[in-house]
Design goal:
four-stranded antiparallel β-sheet; Methylamine Dehydrogenase, Chain H
Length: about 400
Amino acid sequence: MASMEAYENDMRKLRRSRKRKRYIKNAVTVGVFIVIVMAIYLSRSLWLPELEGVLQRNFITGGNQEERVESFPIDISRKVNVLIAPMSDCLAIYQDNYLTTLDSGGEELFSSYLTYGSPVILTEGKRALAYDMGGYSFTVITKKSEAFSHRLDDQILYAALGDRGGAAVVTSTDRYPSLLTVYDKNGSKLYSWGDGNYITAAGFSDSEDKIAVSSVYAQGGSIRTTVRVFDIGKREIIAKTDPVETLALGIGYTGHGGFWLIGDTGVYYYDENCSLAYSSDYSYDISSYAIGDGIAAVELSSIDGKSSYVTLYSDSGEGTVQLDYQEKISHIDISGGMVYISTGSRLDCYSSGGILISSYSLGREYNSFAVVGENIYLKSYSSIEKYSLNDSGGIG
């Protein structure tokens, strides 16, 4: 197993590199843990785009306070490792080793002190999971309390969170390159499975009775991915896909029982029996993606970096829609069946069929956002601000 220093150095390099595919192929060939690389793609918080501006909408502000708890806007100019993520009924923030939940007015609901060197936040439904990538600890919280936490014996490479509170954690061990462990909503261990290859993605079904897990390996100079579906209650594999020549970046179940597989070369949709129902190869390099509410949104960037293309895929059989942008896309997210796309000049909201619902002008620099209900929280390098997406007034 590579040293911790090499692990972190590879992570930083790959964030900046547009040659990740070639690097990963070489890494797999020589036995490097490519799952570490893939964790970058699988965490919303690790896509740090340049989102410029302010929405011209209802601005909610509060008085300045010297405590950590503030109403909006929240000053983060002196904070480090600031991450934001949406929960179903509140906002999760990681800053200065604190994982905190805030209500819509910016009041603190719960806070937990976590000393994570490389924090990653995942949110699903009413829970948030924070883990230390390359470390040994992870914590799951609710809106107002800690659900459970564990310190493991092996380094954490990747984690996934279910909508009902279950969690899956992938570690590297002396015996297996990747060991998957599934926990229930109370933190009790349900199932473990060791993979002789590399687990790069996992996704729970809506009922959390199943979990789909990608296994990546090198064969004949190419990268191949196989997805296995586990029945968690029976503790057995119930279905398996045929290999596809791609490197799995993400897996997301849909309400129809099938699941999306986002690869580095194409997108795939499988039915509940792991039969391939749809696939599409990319014309350009993938830059980012989002999966949610039966939708897969994939951003591709032109070679010169001046144009971006977002393709929307729906499990409802509506077909695909391509959205063209003549500027760099900063961030993509899916919430409430809507697709949000931000650039340096605006934030657009689309239906799953690609119909533009609303557009908001931007006027300053942001690097992340989170949509919670009818509110959007925008994070710049100096503050976190809140705006309403529910007021009239047309395009800003």
